[in-house]
Task: structure prediction
Amino acid sequence: MNPSDDLNAEPALEYEEWKVLLRALCGRYSPAGVEPKAFAGWVRPAYICGFEAVDLSCNAHRIERTYRDVRLDGTDHYGAIFQFAGRSTLVQNDRVTELAVGDVALVDSTQPVTYISENRPGRWLGLNLPRHSLVSHLGLEPESGLSRRGGNPASRLLFRLVQDVADGRDLSAASAEPYMQLAIYDLLGALFAVSDGPSTSTHSEKLFMRVCGIIKAHFADPDLGPTAVAAEAGISLRYLQKLFTLRGSACSHFIYSVRLDHAARLIQRRTSTKTGQPLSAIAYACGFRDYTHFARAFRIRFGYPPGAAGIRAAGNDRVRVHAGESAQ
Result:
């Protein structure tokens, strides 16, 4: 498609009209490097496989989003940027990325960004991706300011899919939208979530600590499992599993560990206070539905049955006393 054809295909907007419409669709951006009276461009809202999107073109040399813009509009999403016509340079997070037709870039709306158009007018399509949904699906928070060339197989598939829908060649039923969204997420993951090592971002660490806190607060609930934990944390089950896998563990194992450690403390207290509390009552208080299951898990974890835990604890106390007497 010739870039000049884009401006002829849509009603041209004046400088301020263009800014206002774009702001309503995806945030505050300003064209620069062109006189307002000489400005020409258009903005068209789009709907791509269930995602909100914006299809736009203009003859400005730059399109900028500043720190002030970020602070004023407070938008919080990722944007998948598709270069439909012309060439441009994208600058975000101290990264400078060249874009040609067919290329795909990922930007973060909470960070300033600049697009510099080399061949004007250019045409771009921006796909608004909810941060929470994208991070939950990928299992990590992707870096922004990156791009992938159109020659990449995943880039070609993703670009063709989005372009067909944007140009009105989508014939799929509305019922297929959830599956199409998953396809877009998976292709974005193939492009931008590839990592040489485990993700240990601050966001991931904070989220993991929050998940652990949820488990420690609700372990006594026998219905607590990975699905319930993920729902309480507001993340997908896949992302929850990723958090534990990166740390060499599993959510279900952590839940059992918290329950069994608490049971061991209760049994030791039972012995020291000589309350005679039934071991089955302790098992139920720690979130186990079945005493036999509890006893088996307890033996596997500690190497002895629950009934021997108090004896061992008392024996350890006697050893410590004798050791103290010897030292004296």
The CA atoms of residues 13 and 272 lie 81 Å apart. The first helix runs from residue 3 to 9.
